[in-house]
């Protein structure tokens, strides 16, 4: 569903929490894959995960002179390329070039509602203003905007103010990342378990107050426990997979040199795309199989949310040196009268459900990275209601609370979910 590719270590900022330990200089960082090599692997991604979101990040990916070509290559192969950037290099020209190349959007880092903390964290004066200008240029070019905020004690009380900026700048989503102390992040002070609980509760409330902005907590899968969501369940605009730990399950990361890890915060290398085909790495590597099949140790393994949450595997590794250890940042202890969560049921086979032409055409206009999940959800609803045909009217009747952005051919913003 999601691939994150750090295209380069080169960066124009010097963020004190950078998990990649990026280099504050321009040009090509040592050993990073060239254009032809990246394009070859992009084809492998498209073959392995049709329609996946491909986050092209860094360092600062706009320092790659071939970025537009890489975006175009990904888009023409059915992927949804999104640029993960600090925003300072996104001007009107670059935004329109990315849009023309086929970029679905930009994820811009904004760590405070005012310049002081953001600029100090990012290591360069003016970084906050640059990020705001970048978001404005992206919006005017028609790119979807995702605001990415890493939480610390200094900014965790700014959630509502940051959401104000995200809404005013036209963002479709706001992702709050909970720090995992890896890379340069080991120098940072993490939140306490009590602060995690308090901050997650505020994020839940913030989403309820702002239904038009998709607000998510990243690297904090116990949000599902706070929401009371069991494995496979969804509610209040949270899909069944939303905010859970995706590492090695429906998510992988590629380094500038082509090494594969389960996520950016797990440094365990599971393969090299220049040596082993990506499909073979994904399907056969023992560590990835372990992430998908093995229960974690400690309290996470006996929890009443052990499948629906399961803890953050990157944090478990950082804390205990074991990928499958418990996540000690979670305060929850299984109540004495509660059983460990049962394994999710395997969906029963059902008769094939057909789509009328108009409904199929509308489905195809949705962003590729959500299309599969929308299709599966609608077919599940149809099966539950003993419907063999999905029509536009059926889609309208089962419209989710949040309206997804829909794109027409040519990558221009099109209609929303049918009204």
Give an overview of the whole structure:
- Strand 7, helix 6 and strand 8 (173-178) form a beta-alpha-beta unit.
- Mean pLDDT is 87; it is low at 402-416.
- The protein is 35% helix and 14% strand.
- With 419 residues, it is α/β, with parallel strands linked by helices.
- The chain has helices at 35-48, 67-76, 92-101, 115-122, 127-140, 159-168, 193-209, 223-227, 278-284, 286-293, 298-301, 313-320, 357-364, 368-384, 392-397; strands spanning 2-6, 10-11, 23-24, 53-57, 80-85, 105-109, 144-151, 173-178, 214-218, 251-254, 259-261, 271-272, 354-355, 389-390.
- Strands 9-8-7-6-5-4-1-10-11-12 form a 10-stranded mixed beta sheet. It has a two-stranded parallel ribbon with strand order 2-3. A two-stranded parallel sheet has the order 13-14.
- The protein starts with a strand and ends in a 22-residue tail after the last helix.
- Secondary structure class reads alpha/beta
Q: Shape, please?
A: globular
Total helical segments = 15
Proportion of residues in β-strands: 5-15%
Question: Which consecutive residue ranges, at least 5 long each, have pLDDT under 50?
Answer: 402-416
| Strand order in the sheet with the most strands | 9-8-7-6-5-4-1-10-11-12
What is the ordering of alpha helices and beta strands? EEEHEHEHEHHEHEHEHEEEHHHHEHHEH
Helical content stands at 25-40%
**Rounded average pLDDT:** 87
Instruction: Give the termini separation.
Output: 27 Å
Number of strands: 14
Largest sheet: 10 strands, mixed
What is the CA-based Rg, rounded?
21 Å
